[in-house]
Each structure stands twice: as structure tokens, then as C-alpha cells.
Amino acid sequence: MSGAQLYDTIGATYTVTRRTEPRISAQIWAALGDARTVLNVGAGTGSYEPADRDVTAVEPSALMRAQRPAGAAPCVAAAAESLPFEDRSFDAAMAVATVHHWQDPIAGLREMQRVARRVVVLTHDTTDAGWLHRFWLTRDYLPEVGDMVVGRPSLTELAAALGARVEPVPIPWDCADGFFEAFWRRPEAYLDENVRRGLSVWTRVGPKAEQRAVHSLRADLASGRWAERNRDLLDLDAAELGLRLLIA
Hints:
alpha/beta; 7-stranded mixed beta sheet; two-stranded antiparallel ribbon; 9 strands; globular
């Protein structure tokens, strides 16, 4: 299932839990530098689009395009791998938490570099063999996530395709954007159906794995086992869980 097909299926309640996290947006917008014209690829409902710049959005999912708020940047129906713009049409191109949905991530990144002078991409580092163990949800409850990255380009390959430098992106404990790792210090959130429906991971692993993980997490929260396992997280203000910014 392509990213567009996936979000045409599950995206109806996306805006309930997915919104701009200001501390992450500040890092993204700083990476855009002095760019005045910005292309947002895989734009979804418009989170992280800078309001003080001339933004054009690209989003293949009709359902996601329909949820863009009034006054949002104009949005073109297209895929990252075939951007309908001339070379160097924009000062910068950005992509936020979308590369893993693309059919050909390397081709998409090269298209971004073709149409823009600067490229900024928020993605994940799954290169380290131990990355699944960084986050308790994948380590203890949902190991199936590991199967989802098999055959996908590594962070090293993505960065090499752009000639990009890499910046770590810490995730604040009270992150406003409900992406997969956002609730690392608020485990009860993953018991909420609305939270899970805003995350493509749960659809991709399937209902059987989802039900098992939720049941086990609920039991561990009730027994205190989760708190015992993860007591080192409770005093952290931010966590390092592999979120990365590529800047080229």
C-alpha cells in the first residue's frame, strides 16, 4: 500500500492528534535558513509549514489535502518521486516524517534537490542494529515495527543521496505532535484509540499485533511493571529516540 493509499484509508482523524510541535518546528525552520520560497513535500494537513514564508505544498492523499485548514498554503496532488516543478523553482524543499511512506525515497530526495537549492528532511535513524531497543514500545510490545524497515534505505544512504549533514532531534516529554515516539513518557496515551489511529504504524503491523500490544501495555501499567522497567525516563525532559534532521 502506498503512502497515499494508506492515508486515504486511515487519515480521517489525523488532525485530532497530529499537530505542530513548536520546539521541533523551530529546529526545522532554522535549518531552512533564509529561504523565502519553500516546497513542503508529503505535506499532509500542513503541520510544520512556516507561516512567514511563501509555501507550496505537495500531498498525494486526497483525504489529507481535504483536511488542510482554511488559509493553508496551496497544495498540489503529486508524489515526491515526480515533482511537477522546474529545476531550482524554490529556495528550499522540506519533508517532515514522510520519507518512509515514499515508494522510492532516494528518487524523492533527488527530486527535492532538483527543484530546490536547499533540502531539509525530518526522518528516523534505523541504521543502528539496536534502534528498536531505544524505545520501550518497540522493545517490549511491538517488535513487528522492525519488519517495516527491512529493505528501506538507511539514514546513511539517505544522507549520502543529498550530501547532507545530520542533526539529532530530541523529543520533548510533552510533545504536542502525536507521532509514534511522542508519548515516550506518557504511556497511557497509546491506550487511546484516537492516538493510535493518527499513526500509520498501527495499521501497518495489523490488528492482531495492535491488540496484543495494547493489552500487554494496559496490564503492565496497571501492575506497575511499566514504571519499574522505565523508571529512568520519568525525570527526563527530552529523549533521544533516533529522530534526525537531514540538511543539504
